[in-house]
């Protein structure tokens, strides 16, 4: 069979004129303002929670993680143009990743997480290994050396 | 192509068409990004697991990262907020370069790409500044029991390294260096690829080709770097 080099050039599919470009730029800047707003809100919430102890940690985690996923959605669908690809392409990118990550997260939080809950290392276990050569001026040289 | 897609063949199976409507290069950039995303997810899951396991000795990130250049006050999260802003901003300039490429506007592509490169360098520089403060640590330091030559020795520890740190569990420093380092290296290589493509655009290679698809591919990589930072930002600094 003869080699065909006359495939449709899909690089040209996305090309557009000035009018369409203006519309797209406005959309992109909108996404930027949304993401900036979310980030500023997260920072305010984070520094508020750092100075006030009456904020529920679980609620904070849920809020931060959902905002992160929302930002990820905006990046992938708008900036990376996945929203404009065909349906099959979207599935090929999203489905395998989601499958593996759900597996990983459940493994880390439920199976292994439960194990570590039952075998918690006590906070008193605070011995840290240091390099065999003691640092200059550390008590190791004067006190313990024989 | 039309003679293959005859009446006997369904349009997509006769050859000569791309069912996914993306080019080879872009498709494989996506596949590479998925594998890279799995790597980063594994790192962050491991971080979360270890943090849960050693919850008693794990430091509160907002008490560790509160420095800001030229301001001698404790400002938790402000600096990392600035870094996030820089990276999101550079992501926007990148997507504007891609958009300019769709209009085949060489001047615009060059302008937005150079801004992206500057943003990338600013981010890597900010990260170096933060690493410097993390490594040197505080004036007061923290007394730790270290094992030196097989004996337990009380030592005044300043800052952090891969073996121990003054803030808490030694794994905290190890994870910080490993995850932000791996991400920083991605940013650095992204900047290098951006520079390469910028030079190609400037020399008119894309103009000769008739399309700016290379800008799109490097844009995908750059947005991915931004995407990873969004997650690192949440799991390392906010939670």
Walk me through the structure:
- The complex is a heterodimer of chains A (146) and B (239).
- Chain A has 146 residues and is mainly alpha-helical.
- Chain A is built from four helices and one strand.
- Chain A has helices at residues 18-51, 57-79, 87-118, 139-144, and one strand spanning 127-129.
- Chain A is flat.
- Chain A starts with 17 loop residues before the first helix and ends with a helix.
- Helix content of chain B is 64%, strand content 6%.
- Chain B is built from seven helices and two strands.
- In chain B, helix 1 (24-53) packs antiparallel against helix 5, helix 3 (78-102) packs antiparallel against helix 4 (106-136) and helix 4 runs antiparallel to helix 5.
- At the A-B interface, helix 1, helix 2, helix 3, strand 1 and helix 4 of A face helix 1, helix 3, strand 1, strand 2 and helix 7 of B.
- Strand 1 of chain A pairs parallel with strand 1 (142-148) of chain B, so a sheet runs across the interface.
What descriptive keywords fit this protein?
heterodimer, A: 146 residues, mainly alpha, disordered C terminus, B: 239 residues, two-stranded antiparallel sheet, 7 helices, 6% strand, elongated, disordered N terminus
Biggest interface pair, residues each?
Answer: A-B, 79 and 79 residues
Please mark out the parts of chain A with pLDDT under 50 across 5 or more consecutive residues, or reply none.
Answer: 136-146
Shape verdict of chain A:
flat
DSSP strand content of chain B: 5-15%
Profile the largest sheet of chain B: 2 strands, antiparallel
The span between the termini of chain B is: 55 Å
Number of helices of chain A: 4
* Sheet with most strands of chain A: none
Distance between the termini of chain A: 83 Å
Succession of helices and strands of chain B: HHHHEEHHH
What is the general shape of chain B? elongated
The whole-angstrom Rg of chain B is 23 Å
Main structural class of chain B: mainly alpha
């Amino acid at each position: 069979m003869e080699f065909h080099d006359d495939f449709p050039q899909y690089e040209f599919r996305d090309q557009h004129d000035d009018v369409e470009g203006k519309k797209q730029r406005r959309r992109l800047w909108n996404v930027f303002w949304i993401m900036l707003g979310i980030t500023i809100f997260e920072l305010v919430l984070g520094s508020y929670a750092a100075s006030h102890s009456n904020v529920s940690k679980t609620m904070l985690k849920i809020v931060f993680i959902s905002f992160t996923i929302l930002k990820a959605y905006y990046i992938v669908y708008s900036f990376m143009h996945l929203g404009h690809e065909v349906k099959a392409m979207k599935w090929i990118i999203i489905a395998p990743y989601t499958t593996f990550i759900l597996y990983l997260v459940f493994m880390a939080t439920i199976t292994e997480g439960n194990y570590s809950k039952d075998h918690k290392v006590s906070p008193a276990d605070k011995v840290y290994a240091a390099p065999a050569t003691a640092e200059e001026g550390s008590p190791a040289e004067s006190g313990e050396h024989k | 192509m039309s003679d293959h897609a005859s009446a006997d063949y369904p349009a997509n199976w006769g050859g000569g068409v791309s069912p996914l409507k993306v080019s080879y290069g872009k498709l494989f950039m996506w596949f590479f990004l998925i594998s890279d995303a799995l790597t980063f997810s594994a790192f962050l899951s491991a971080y979360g697991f270890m943090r849960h396991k050693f919850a008693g000795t794990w430091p509160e990130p907002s008490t560790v990262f509160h420095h800001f250049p030229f301001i001698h006050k404790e400002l938790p999260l402000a600096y990392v907020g600035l870094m996030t802003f820089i990276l999101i901003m550079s992501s926007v300039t990148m997507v504007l370069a891609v958009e300019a490429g769709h209009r085949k506007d060489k001047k615009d592509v060059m302008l937005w790409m150079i801004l992206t490169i500057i943003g990338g360098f600013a981010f890597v520089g900010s990260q170096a500044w933060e690493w410097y403060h993390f490594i040197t640590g505080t004036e007061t330091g923290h007394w730790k029991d270290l094992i030196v030559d097989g004996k337990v020795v009380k030592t005044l520890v300043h800052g952090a390294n891969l073996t121990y740190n003054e803030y808490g569990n030694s794994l905290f420093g190890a994870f910080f260096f490993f995850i932000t380092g791996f991400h920083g290296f991605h940013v650095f290589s992204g900047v290098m690829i951006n520079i390469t493509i910028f030079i190609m655009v400037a020399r008119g290679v894309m103009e000769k080709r008739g399309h700016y698809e290379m800008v799109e591919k490097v844009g995908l990589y750059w947005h991915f770097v931004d995407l990873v930072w969004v997650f690192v930002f949440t799991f390392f600094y906010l939670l």
